[in-house]
Amino acid sequence: MPEQSHIPFTREMKKTHTILVPTMLPMHFELIISVMRTYGYKMELLRSSGPEIAEAGLKYVHNDTCYPAILVIGQFLDALQSGKYDPERVALILFQTGGGCRASNYVSLLRKALARAGYSHVPVIAISFSGLEKHPGLTLSVKKLHGMMYAILYGDLLMTLANQCKPYEINAGQADALAQEWTERLGRELGTGRISYKRIRRNYERIVRSFAEIPRRERETVKVGVVGEIFVKYSPLGNNDLEKFLVSEGAEVVVPGLMDFILYCVYNSVEDYRLYGRGPVSHHVYALAYSVLCRKKRDMIEAIEREASFEAPTLFERTANLAHGYISNGTKMGEGWLLTAEMLELAESGVKNIVCTQPFGCLPNHICGKGMMRPIKERNPEVNIVAIDYDAGATKVNQENRLKLMLSNARARARQAEAEEVKEKVAV
To answer: Residue 38 belongs to what domain range?
Structure first.
């Protein structure tokens, strides 16, 4: 069986190759791509979907492989075989943490799949803060990371506001249209490479104000939080359009932002020094990065808080503290302690119904997500958590039926609580 060796992305390839980016968070990734185009990279976000993506992945990857890997590899292969791209002039990029879970094998799995499919010459760029690989044609400088940070904050802001508008908007689709309009506008700004923090904060205010102007009506909804493995939590391809389905069922979806995951990764590097004495020099760099990122997120939160009609996300410092007493902050495989903390964060903010999305057989998620459901419920009996497995063999109908049951239970509990409240008022 042919094996693909590591083919570095060279400086010459930067001029000739288009880098294909797998889908996860379309708004966030479009903004990140805009930043990278500033530095001369030709990038394109793949938006393909449908059963053929999983089928393409399963053709070249073992079916016991992590479901996100099957989808990402399937999407790449589907693009290469579509005829839309010249296989001699494309490269593929994967973002990963390099942590101790199956996701760290994506790169080798992708290269093997490419070799089997006859594309062994296509470069695979592995982007990781762990420094797994070197690619002379693509490096992440402080300036590039600076731009990507604002792209992620913008994406989180747009996602948060759109989700709070969609269930109530009078003109269906207006929130999504406005989010796309802002994505294109902000992408053009970020694409200039001239980043002014004064302008970014002014943009926060304008974005919040524009969403506040969307005509909305009051209606009874169930707030549903979504947590889990990062790909199936965010990607419509990975979770069968979970957010769209929940909104169609009359729910308001609450999803923690991508910046929280970035902060989680940085925070873990800070904690490594405290827990294990690792990296005494790099510890100071990570501590500074953590402080800066927390401050930047706080500024975005304050922009939301100044508009009374929206609820702002939780400060990450608070999220990190919520895990204490439930799970150690040294538990950091996959989403680790953050998964537990996000469920507690949602519960504390009044989101009592939570969907925990996980690829079938994902050990970190089964421990930190499914495994923590019982202790969370024991200490927070009003919280309703349902774990949904996503896999090539799982049916969408079964997933949606379980979600409908969760929503039905949530509405029944809300009616019961309302009835009890009325009784108490009558008794008084």
So the answer is: 11-140
